[in-house]
Design a protein that fits this description.
By secondary structure, the chain is an all-alpha fold. It contains twelve helices and no strands.
């Protein structure tokens, strides 16, 4: 690293103070820094996450109402089919596409905020996402297909292990006291649940860095997937900790909204029929679930963007590369008072969506 790489421009390089923050981080420090960024940009981040979440919420409510409310009101079959089709279309097609675009644009905006102190704005996020829309959508769709394929294989293995353990536990009831056998069965089921969660995180880790690779490095579809797989090696436990943190936040939001609803429904006698929940309760819990996603979406996006930088610092000496580029840029800048120096307009601090900001 004897000079600035060609892909770097002086206005795209972080200053020395920001370079000092590029250091290997523990998962706790990474989450703490993500929370700090979230707090400083809470309103714009929440506004950005609201669009796909609101669309998903509307679709979920349509499906729930068509499946229960319309049937209870003796609506015609075409009305039920139209309601459910519209709900599934919004929930499983429009909302995921918006989520991919928002995640990609937000990842780039968070990277520019972290490295260049560029403010996070809705318009800028959309400009970033639209500048690489096809690569962004293509890479994430490819990644999700690989994710579900891997998850299906892991689920099949998990089911085989589950039935072997379950049958072995039932067989042990003939030789062990019932209390000891029940405790052993509970322990084995808990271990299987933990293994299932780790398997899920192992699959999720492989696609978690795809938006960062596409939006920060500017790679194409398959190249982005391969690059994300390379960077994700050894990140499974860190992804598991980030996932647990997100689950804790989402559970807190859902519980804060859902528990008063449960208490009200129980006191009001709405659960007299244990096999059937009232319509208003189903809709309210759907809204609570979507609010949990609304709060955690920006947090997970920030955390994975920081994880991307951290993996590059650990494996590629990214901080040293940027420092070398910054020093080379400063050394090649004309000195003050040089007679040959002519006034030049100050370049913008942020590059276009097709460029690279603080990347190689």
């Amino acid at each position: 690293m004897t000079g600035a790489p060609p892909s770097f421009r002086p206005e795209e390089l972080p200053d020395l103070r920001q370079l000092a923050d590029l250091e290997p981080l523990s998962t706790g420090d990474l989450i703490d820094r993500a929370v700090h960024i979230y707090r400083r940009n809470f309103i714009p981040l929440l506004a950005l996450a609201a669009l796909p979440v609101v669309v998903s919420c509307v679709g979920t409510l349509l499906v729930a109402y068509a499946a229960t409310g319309l049937r209870e009101s003796d609506a015609t079959l075409p009305a039920i089919i139209i309601g459910m089709s519209a709900g599934y279309f919004l929930t499983y097609l429009i909302s995921p596409l918006l989520l991919m675009l928002i995640t990609g644009g937000l990842t780039r905006a968070v990277a520019d905020f972290t490295m260049l102190d560029a403010p996070i704005r809705l318009r800028r996020v959309w400009q970033m996402a639209s500048g690489r829309i096809w690569s962004l959508l293509g890479a994430q769709v490819t990644g999700y297909l690989l994710f579900w394929l891997a998850l299906s294989g892991l689920a099949l293995v998990w089911l085989i292990i589950f039935w072997v353990v379950f049958l072995a536990a039932l067989f042990s009831f003939s030789y062990l006291p019932s209390v000891l056998a029940s405790g052993l069965l509970t322990l084995l089921l808990a271990i299987l649940a933990a293994l299932g969660f780790v398997g899920y995180c192992a699959a999720a880790a492989q696609i978690a860095l795809i938006p960062s690779v596409v939006m920060i490095e500017g790679r194409q579809i398959w190249d982005s997937v391969v690059r994300a797989l390379q960077l994700a090696r050894g990140a499974i436990w860190r992804v598991a900790q980030i996932t647990l943190f997100d689950l804790a936040i989402a559970s807190s939001v859902i519980s804060a909204i859902g528990m008063p609803l449960v208490i009200y429904a129980l006191l009001n006698g709405d659960f007299d029929e244990l096999t059937r929940a009232p319509m208003w309760f189903i809709l309210a819990f759907s809204v609570a679930d979507q609010l949990g996603k609304l709060v955690t979406l920006p947090m997970s996006t920030i955390a994975y963007c920081l994880l991307y930088f951290d993996m590059r610092v650990r494996r590629e000496g990214y901080d040293v590369e940027l420092l070398s580029a910054r020093l080379a840029s400063a050394a090649s800048a004309p000195r003050r008072g040089d007679a040959s120096e002519s006034p030049r307009p100050v370049p913008p601090a942020i590059s276009s969506p097709s460029g690279t900001a603080a990347v190689s």
